[in-house]
């Protein structure tokens, strides 16, 4: 399973770090993603990191503000979010890819999600 944590209420311009603890599979063998869903909207891919952590990509909407990282020794995925905006309000999901690297939606396992609310 994938278990997210670190969500909460933050003021605009603030920062949060999300974590995702992975178990039940060889974490270091797969790319990992963050995907979010804002209220009343569809799913939006946010970031991806390769299995070894050396390659990352972010959606244009978060580029320069969010950073994805991973610690394969701890089986944990992170998303450092800064300069948060109200439009970043969403449920954030940790999502496992089926390959070592892909910019496409080759997903199989999803976490339960963690709520991030950006509001003053």
Could you describe the 3D structure shown?
- This protein is mainly β and 120 residues long.
- Helices cover 0% and strands 49% of the residues.
- It has no helices and eleven strands.
- Strands 2, 4, 5, 6, 9, 10 and 11 form a seven-stranded mixed beta sheet that branches. A four-stranded antiparallel beta sheet has the order 1-3-8-7, with no helix packed on it.
- Strand 4 and strand 5 form a beta hairpin.
- The radius of gyration is 13 Å and the shape is globular.
- The termini are far apart.
- The mean pLDDT is 96.
Properties at a glance:
globular, 11 strands, four-stranded antiparallel beta sheet, 120 residues
Quick take:
It is built from no helices and eleven strands.
- For the termini, the CA-CA separation is 34 Å
SSE pattern:
EEEEEEEEEEE
Overall pLDDT: 96
Helix content: under 10%
Helix-strand category:
mainly beta
Outline the low-pLDDT stretches: none
Q: If helices are DSSP runs of H or I spanning 4 or more residues, what is the number of helices? A: 0
State the major sheet: 7 strands, mixed
**Assembly category:** single chain
> Shape from CA axes?
globular
Q: Approximately what portion of the residues adopt beta-strand conformation?
A: over 45%
Radius of gyration: 13 Å
């Amino acid at each position: 399973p994938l278990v997210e944590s670190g969500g909460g209420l933050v003021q605009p311009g603030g920062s949060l770090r999300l974590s995702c603890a992975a178990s039940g599979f060889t974490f270091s063998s797969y790319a990992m993603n963050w995907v979010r869903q804002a209220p009343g909207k569809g799913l939006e891919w946010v970031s991806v990191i390769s299995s070894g952590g050396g390659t990352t990509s972010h959606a244009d909407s978060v580029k320069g503000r969010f950073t994805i990282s991973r610690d394969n020794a701890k089986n944990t995925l992170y998303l450092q979010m800064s300069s948060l905006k109200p439009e970043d309000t969403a449920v954030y999901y940790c999502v496992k890819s089926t390959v070592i690297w892909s910019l496409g939606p080759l997903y199989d396992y999803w976490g339960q999600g963690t709520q991030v609310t950006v509001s003053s």
